[in-house]
Every structure is written in C-alpha cells, then in structure tokens.
Amino acid sequence: MDIKRIGVITSGGDCGGLNAVIKGAAQMANSMGIETVIIPNGYAGLYNLVDFDNVTVLTPERLDLIHAEMAGSEAGNSRVKIKKIEDENKYDRIKKGLEKFSIGGLVISGGDDTGSVMVDLTSQGIACVHTPKTMDLDLQTYSVGGDSTINRISEMIKDLKTTGVTHNRVIVLEAFGRYAGHTAFRGGIGGDADCILIPEIPADFDVIYKHMKNKFIFRVENSDVKAGTYTIVTAEGMTDAKGEVIVDESAGVDAFGHKKLAGAGKYVRKRLEAIMKEDPEMTEFMKRNGIFVAGVYKLPEIREVTPGHLVRSGRSSSYDVNFGKEAGAAAVILLTKGLGGNSVVNVRGTKITYMPTAEVIKQRRVNLNTVAFYETLGVCFGRKPGEFKPELVEEKGEIEREF
Ligand code: F6P
Q1: What secondary structure does DSSP assign to 135-166, as a single string?
Q2: Which of 208, 231, 239 shows the shortest CA–CA distance to 383?
Q3: Cβ of 261 below 6 Å from ligand 1
Q4: Inter-residue contact 385 to 201 (CB < 8 Å)
Q5: Which atom of ligand 1 lies closest to the CA of 135?
Q6: Which atom in ligand 1 lies closest to the alpha carbon of residue 260?
Q7: What kind and span of H or E run contains 342?
Q8: How far apart are CA 180 and CA 67, in angstroms?
Q9: pLDDT tens across 16-28, in order?
Q10: Would you say 203 and 238 are in contact if contact means Cβ atoms under 8 Å apart?
C-alpha cells in the first residue's frame, strides 16, 4: 500500500508506554520515508480534524521532544465513541479530515472501546492498525500500560507498609482495573500483599477477616516492638458475596458510557471494621500486647488508600517502553502491507505477530488456576483457597523468548 503519511491516535484512559508507541511508529515511518502526524485528543481530534488549520508532524526534531519513558500521551486521549456521535455524516467528515491532511492510514493505540471504534472505522474503509493499550490488561494480548501500573501498585504497597507497621494499621489499597483483576493481582503479588481482592472472585469477608486477624496478630506478637501491619489490594471492580460489583453510584458515568467505579476500598474497610468490632479476641489481643487504651484505642485501625490515577501516571516501565516501541513500529509495517483491521501482538526478531482487532478486544479475566497457585503460597483472595493441581508440560523445540 502506498502511504505517504500516517496519523497516530491514542484513545481511552492514558497509561505507561503510549509515548513509546508514538515514537516507535514515527521512527519506523521515518525510516520508510513516511511522514507521521499526531491526531490530537483521541477520536475527538479525528472527528474534528477537518476543521484544523494544521497538524503536528513528527519530524526528528519534534520526536526528540517526546519522552518514551514518560507515561501519558503526547497525542492526548479522550473517551469518544464515534458510533455515539449524533451526526449522520460523521464517517464522511472523518474521511474529509484525513484527505485534507493526506493521511493514508492510522495507528490507533487503545483498549477494548478504542479497538471497537477502530473495527468500525475499518469497516468504513479507513486503513487502521491497532496497538493494544490498557492498564487493565483485559485484552487477549499484552497491552502497554499493564506492566507500568503493576509496578506502581507494587511500589505503593511496599511504601504503605512503613506507615502501616508504624501505626499497627491494616492498609487497603484500591486499584484501577475495571472489571478484571489483573493489575490488582500482579501488583499485589509484586508488593507482597497479604490479601488481593479481584472482581473474578466474590469476596467472602469471613475468610478475609480470619486471614487478616491471624497474620496481623502473628506479626505483632512476633515483633519485639509489638509492630505489625496487614496489606490488602482490592481491585476497584471487586465483587461482593453475590458477585455484584461494589459501586458508589454517585461517581457517574464516563464519556464511553461506562459506570465510573469507586468505593471498593471503603467497602472493604467498613466490612472488616464491622466484623472486628464484634470480635472480643481482638480486644484481648490489644490488651495482651499493651496497645489497648480504654476509650481511645480499642482496636487496630483499618485505612483505605485510593491512589486513583496515580497508578497509571508518572513514568512508564522499561517493559512498556520496549513493547510500546515495538508495537508502534510494527503497526506502521502492517499498515503499509495493507493489513488494516488488525492489532499488533508482538515483535520477535523479524517476526511480527498480529491478530484481528475484533478478536483481540474480547475480554480476558484472571485465570483462577493461577489464583489457586498463589493461595497455596498463602495469599488470601477472599475465598476458601482453591485446589492447585500442577500440570507438568515438557517443552519441546525452541522456546520463543527474547530475554
Ligand atoms: O480503563 C482504564 C482505567 O484506568 C480504568 O482502570 C479506570 O476505571 C478508568 O480508566 C478511569 O478512567 P478515567 O480516567 O476516565 O476516570
């Protein structure tokens, strides 16, 4: 396909690795004699492109100002679903914008909603290749943002332990991730959290409380200075015993029309506080260890921390910069080969793997066998531990890995 100029779009929630995608795409395009421009602010910019006076061209000088290691996106994001725009000429308007700036194809970085719009645009005859992006990690393929967020969550948990142990508090960290628990799970494991609550497992508070009480008491009573903490990572989309997502309805909906999730950390704290209040053994524990002060300090405190957007801000992990550059660059190659409608899966040496975007955006949730594995290692997932049945597989042939 003879493309002289491509546009780069980043869409949906921002996260680590997006600037690497932009850089990778533009650097590969430059090496092929193709110009890259930024279409600003996601699909909002695409829809309004026709009214723009100019677009930013990613010349080597401009590219040098984009820092691949920074999270967020130099292109800007929005949560605009083209299908939802009440304008019967919306696709013509988009095509006119692309024609105006001689843009022959698009590299679009985003998650499931972005991907579904990309499938929609492809069916309208617009050449687009998708690079997977979401900190929620709920696509079929790896997506930039996941590793950066996991690292952020695990660092926060590690940091929170210092204040937790100093005050003998139980810490509950609520992490973004929507309806999949991948980042809470892996971030929690990375930070060596005691308990991880994910949407995939309806939370049983009797199990959580028992685990918390035993670990907390064990730590304090094994400490020569009577200090201990207990850490819980809860996914924002955690589910109650009935399997329903805990949502503070006052949070409203986003531009894609999804409920904003909020309130999981507070819910966990309140449920545990209520059980602890009725447990005389906790008061005895406080007295036995010289912590109890009548009328002032009767029970250990439970505190929730809601970092919100901090889990996807700041810097990108090195893994995301690597994957982002590879995915962005590979997307340009797919575009020039007429392979619109696909998502980049990965790049290994000369091999670029891709998959139809309509498949890639199907939701992937946490594997409960992996949960059972970690339950065997003592982590609580808010249920009676599942049975871990190891399956031994002998690898035959070459193992495809880069490091
Ligand atoms: O989908 C990515 C994500 O970070 C979710 O985990 C979270 O629920 C949501 O975006 C928050 O989005 P916003 O920045 O629009 O509030």
Answers
A1: TT--SSS--BTHHHHHHHHHHHHHHHHHHHHH
A2: 208
A3: yes
A4: no
A5: 2
A6: 8
A7: strand 342-348
A8: 29
A9: 999 999 999 999 9
A10: yes
pLDDT tens digits, one per residue of 270-326: 999 999 999 999 999 999 999 999 999 999 999 999 999 999 999 999 999 999 999
Q: What is the pLDDT of residues 368-379, one digit of tens each?
A: 999 999 999 999
**CA 141 to ligand 1 center in whole angstroms:** 19
The answer to whether 8 touches 310, Cβ cutoff 8 Å, is: no
Q: Residue of the nearest CA to atom 11 in ligand 1?
A: 13
Q: Is 159 in the pocket of ligand 1 (CB under 6 A)?
A: no
> How far, in Å, from the CA of 105 to the mean position of ligand 1?
27
Give distance in angstroms: CA of 13 to centre of ligand 1.
Answer: 5
Q: Is 120 a catalytic residue?
A: no
Percentages helix, strand, coil for the chain (3-state, rounded to 5) are 40, 15, 45
Rounded Cα distance between 235 and 147, Å, is 16
**What pLDDT band is residue 402 in, cutting at 50, 70 and 90?**
confident
- pTM of the complete model: 0.96
Q: Does residue 110's CB lie within 6 angstroms of at least one atom of ligand 1?
A: no
Find the 16 Cα to ligand 1 centroid distance in Å.
Answer: 13
Residue 29 to residues 34, 36, 39, 57, 399: CA-CA distances in angstroms? 5, 7, 16, 12, 31
- Condensed to tens digits (0 to 9), the pLDDT of residues 83-120 reads 999 999 999 999 999 999 999 999 999 999 999 999 99
**Does the beta carbon of 139 sit less than 6 angstroms from any atom of ligand 1?**
no
Could you identify the atom of ligand 1 that is nearest to the CA of residue 183?
6
Residue closest by Cα to atom 12 of ligand 1 = 13
Q: Please give the backbone phi and psi of residue 85, each rounded to the nearest 5 degrees, phi first.
A: -75, 125
* Residues ≥6 apart with Cβ < 8 Å to 264: 174, 197, 234, 235, 236, 237, 238, 246
Of 378, 372, 375, whose CA–CA distance to 391 is shortest? 372
pLDDT over 90 (residue 253): no
pLDDT of 254 strictly over 90: no
Q: Higher confidence at residue 396 or residue 204?
A: 204
Centre of ligand 1 to C-alpha 176, Å, is 7
What is the Cα–Cα distance from 348 to 403, expressed in whole angstroms?
11
